[in-house]
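Can you give me the bound-state structure? Components:
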Amino acid sequence: MSFSPPDPEAACGQPMGAISSALEVAGVSHSYGKRKALIDVSFSVRRASFCVLLGLNGAGKSTLFSLITRLFAVQKGIIRIFGFDVNRAPGEALRRLGVVFQQRTLDLDLTVLQNLSYHAALHGISAQDTKLRAGFVLDQVAMAGRAHDKARDLSGGQMRRVEIARALLHHPHMLLLDEPTVGLDVKARADILKHVRGLVAQESIGVLWATHLIDEIEPGDDVVLLHEGKILDHGNVAEVAARAGAPDIARAFKRVTGIAGEGTPWDQP
Amino acid sequence: MGPAVVAKPQGEGFGLAHYARCFKGIVWREALRFWHQRERFVSALVRPLVWLFIFASGLRSVLGVSIIPPYETYVLYDVYITPGLMAMIALFAGMQSSLSMVYDREMGNMRSLLVSPFPRWFLLTSKLAAGTAVSAAQVYAFLLIAYFWDIEPPSPWGYLSVLPALILAGLMLGALGMLLSSLIKQLENFAGVMNFVIFPMFFASSALYPLWRVRESSPWLAFFSELNPFTHAVELIRFALYEQINFLALAVVLGATIVFLSAAIAAYDPSRGMLKRREGP
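Here's the bound-state model for the whole set.
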């Protein structure tokens, strides 16, 4: 994980020659009226890396995702995706981004394939490419056999897999997933996590995985600790744990956030 | 990942073909949604048909409409209210579109649209065009049924000449619906739209009675009816059915469309409008 300091003057929206960051968030603050949701948030996600955005409910993860995807405009600071400023060059930034929101976003009245075709159209992909590509990504998530089923007939885990397939349809370089395993059983969680980790290894996609579930973090991951709208630390799991003087990331998080002690869901399973 | 299936984006912008695909996709999705909700089509037709077959039939012998443009003879009441009922279909279609957008927002589907890399004005305008096409299809279905009730334009060309008016009226009312959808926070609040938008717009217009009659009983109501853009949508359709253009109505409908659409686009802009003030699209 690397950090680039805020540099609003340099935010020209142009791709920088050798861009090391898939995603760069620099000095971002956001408020809802008087309530501050994010305060001077800065971190970056390396290309082809799996980065976990770890925070409790209400930490600001979904707000951050809304800013990265330009559902909200950045009030203060800069967000760049492969060097493209989401405020100044939203089209170029968003076309490099695949997103799985916390809330289900499939159209339940459409079939799986129709949902994918709609997404493809929203990215300007031709019908021929859509057909080829949809078959490929559905196969990747083991949902090719359900292509003609209506989305409402799928289980929660299957919907998530389709949403991941949809997010990959336009060949993004960066994937954002906001609490993608919430509400899923243990096996479905493990399958999705394994698949997304595979994307990083096999297809060099940068992943930002927002979660409050500590057991989704692996030792080699990068991690960003978000608490009450502030970044408490970020870096490799081992580095963050070491800086907190804790033997593992769960206890490191508890220590830096000051949340309750033993017996909380934050204890390692 | 599938090599050479789709080229990775290299930084170049979108071409016309990409825009065309996006537009087609949005229209296709609206058409599919409409097809899946066929009861919507039926209910959209039942409403004006009830007015035509029951309300207008009951009043046709009581109310006569004098010779006013574009009519060159006395017309029966059911002939008079037909353009108003056509506009009513467009009005309800626009509000239905608004309801769908609020529903989409609550269900999360709206996010899929808004994170598209295409400009937001283009996405919203495409959605508006799709809704207008659905609305026009409903109106033609209504005209088909009305034909068997002996209500038809003076010449068959009227069916064609009314199409631009239907498109313009559909765009105006759809844009109004889109603007309202940005202002409505929850689906439950939509009932207010019925009370404060649909009913006043419809009843304070020339849809059911000519303005000169309204003026006789209430000059104030006539004044407000003249300000009501729905009145002008009705008159635009009425004249177009007779292969004529009401230029005042055309100007008002065009102007109102531009105002409503601009306001809706501003409202859906993440740096302005309701999305900025609200905690989620």
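A couple of observations. Residues 18-277 of chain B form one domain. The mean pLDDT of chain B is 84.
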